[in-house]
Design goal:
Largest sheet: 8 strands, mixed
Order of helices and strands: EEHEHEEEEEEEHEEEEH
Number of strands: 14
Radius of gyration: 22 Å
Mean pLDDT: 94
Number of helices: 4
Helix content: 10-25%
CATH class of the largest domain: Alpha Beta
Oligomer: single chain
Strand content: 25-35%
Shape: elongated
CATH architecture of the largest domain: Alpha-Beta Complex
């Protein structure tokens, strides 16, 4: 669906049905499973993972438009025919393939449906690498010191920013050498990036698994403690956002 729109985000983490889930006369969300239950969609950038319910939902969206209560735009993780048809009928800009979990209520959003882009004003994306080092049945955790700029005293893998001009694998090897004094060669596993929102920053994490031959490391100023733990012990630690997600993907069933 073409067109553009800007406005404040209204985010429903759960799938949304417009038939019975949104009042076409007032624009209020009636679905009790939606976190913004009771709020009106009028003029908002309505963000939810995907639609559900009867095909009559397309006409419910159109009724919102006729009543002047329609959202300014719709943003979905996955386009679903009911929602897409309703957006076309109602001339509402719509973009899909967007991770709606990265959008927060009240964000200032610009939607360009023709190019399929969604911009969050005041929110920046930072690309980082995180490497899980494994020796035998144990993985390395590093506790971030009070000298670092973020997530002090939280546990992490070997992490750092991807500098301009670097590839993610180069950055991963550089950080391993700088932070724990090991020379990393070929990674055991590399997964597609995961993104996590924290305040006004979206952290896009490029994650690697390296099997190393020793547990003897030397940490730099960025860390004040380290431990080799079993993967199933990870939940006992206060970790940086997303570490459990990427570790589970790298280590498969080793993390509950």
């Amino acid at each position: 669906m073409g067109g553009s729109a800007r406005g404040k985000a209204m985010v429903c983490p759960a799938p949304l049905s417009f038939l019975g889930g949104v009042d076409p006369s007032s624009g209020k969300i009636l679905d009790p499973d939606c976190a913004v239950h009771g709020s009106t969609v009028r003029g908002k950038i309505l963000c939810f993972p995907y639609g559900r319910g009867s095909t009559v939902g397309s006409y419910a969206i159109y009724q919102l438009r006729l009543n002047g209560k329609a959202p300014a735009a719709i943003v979905n993780r996955s386009a679903e025919p009911i929602i897409a048809t309703g957006a076309i009928m109602s001339d509402i800009p719509m973009v899909d393939n967007v991770d709606t979990s990265l959008i927060m209520n009240g964000d200032s959003v610009v939607v360009e449906a023709s190019s399929g882009t969604v911009e969050l004003k005041g929110v920046r994306e930072r690309h980082v690498v995180t490497s899980i080092l494994r020796n035998g049945a144990k993985m390395l955790l590093l506790r971030r010191s009070e000298e670092v700029g973020s997530y002090q005293r939280q546990w992490a893998g070997v992490s750092g920013f991807i500098e301009e001009g670097e590839t993610d694998i180069y950055a991963a090897r550089r950080e391993i050498a700088e932070e724990v004094g090991l020379i990393a060669t070929k990674p055991t596993k590399h997964i597609s990036p995961e993104s996590f929102r924290n305040g006004d920053t979206v952290w896009t994490v490029h994650a690697f698994l390296f099997d190393v031959a020793t547990r003897r490391i030397s940490t730099d100023w960025e860390h004040d403690e380290y431990k080799w733990i079993r993967p199933d012990e990870l939940a006992q630690y206060n970790t940086v956002p997303g570490l459990g997600v990427v570790a589970k993907r790298l280590l498969d069933e080793s993390i509950p």
